[in-house]
Amino acid sequence: MKIYNYDAQTGEFISDGESAPSPLEDGVFLIPAYATTDAPPDAEAGHARVFNGSTWVQAVDLRGTHYWDADGTEYVMESLGEMPDDALLAKPEPVIPPAPTPTDAVLAQMARMRRDLLISMVQWRATRYEHQTALSVATADTHEQYVAVLTYIQALRDVPSQSGFPATIDWPVAPA
Q1: Concatenated DSSP letters for 83-145?
Q2: How far apart are CA 4 and CA 38, in angstroms?
Q3: Is the dihedral of CA 132, 133, 135, 138 positive or negative?
Q4: Is the overall model pTM greater than 0.70, yes or no?
Q5: What one-character DSSP code corresponds to residue 175?
Q6: Which end of the chain is more exposed for a tag (fewer CB within 10 A), N or C?
Q7: Domain that holds residue 80
Q8: Contact 88, 67 (CB under 8 A)
Q9: What's the confidence (pLDDT) of residue 95?
Q10: Is the same domain home to 41 and 77?
Q11: Is residue 175, in this structure, part of any structural domain at all?
């Protein structure tokens, strides 16, 4: 007699075979555990034939399919059945929250740092002019250029007193 073997845990069709006749009773065949005499249906693509204890059913077979949840964690289908309702077939793009709006204190600190950097970038010209004048040697800058540098440095120092500070700043232009 033909029998159909299925997996003890999943019920999935494994193989067919022949049952052994009973050594004690004529015409009686031994049906081993996890086997049935009912033939499974023809295989369908994407499905596995499963014996549910009383009949064969076609169970969705997505084993090996990769999916992701909303936070980007990847999973692989390892058992028969449908994917979870919230499964995504492509890895979601990470959600990058918008940068927080800096506070006035942070803006003021950043502005002062920029101001100090701009001063340090031209301070050397004023120092060089003063040294050359003190040594009575020819100066690289004219007196007007020296005054323009000093005026620029003072305008930078006055930045925190501007009416829009620290949100709106009218940065002075460096002299040539």
Answers
A1: PPTT-BSSPPPP--PPPPPPPHHHHHHHHHHHHHHHHHHHHHHHHHHHHHHHTT---SS-HHH
A2: 7
A3: positive
A4: no
A5: P
A6: C
A7: 62-96
A8: yes
A9: 84
A10: no
A11: no
Q: What's the DSSP call for residue 12?
A: B
pLDDT in tens, the chain (176 residues): 999 999 999 999 999 999 999 999 999 999 999 999 999 999 999 999 999 999 999 999 999 999 999 989 999 999 999 999 999 999 999 888 999 999 999 999 999 999 999 999 999 999 999 999 999 999 999 999 999 999 999 999 999 999 999 999 999 999 99
Q: C-alpha angle 20/22/27, rounded to 5°?
A: 95
123 to 62, 106, 147: CA distances (angstroms): 71, 25, 12
- Centre a 10 Å sphere on the Cβ of residue 122 and count the other Cβ atoms it contains: 17
d(C-alpha 131, C-alpha 168), whole Å: 37
Q: Which two tokens stand for residue 62?
A: 């997505």
**Domain C-terminal end among 47, 79, 96:** 96
* Residue 129 confidence (pLDDT): 97
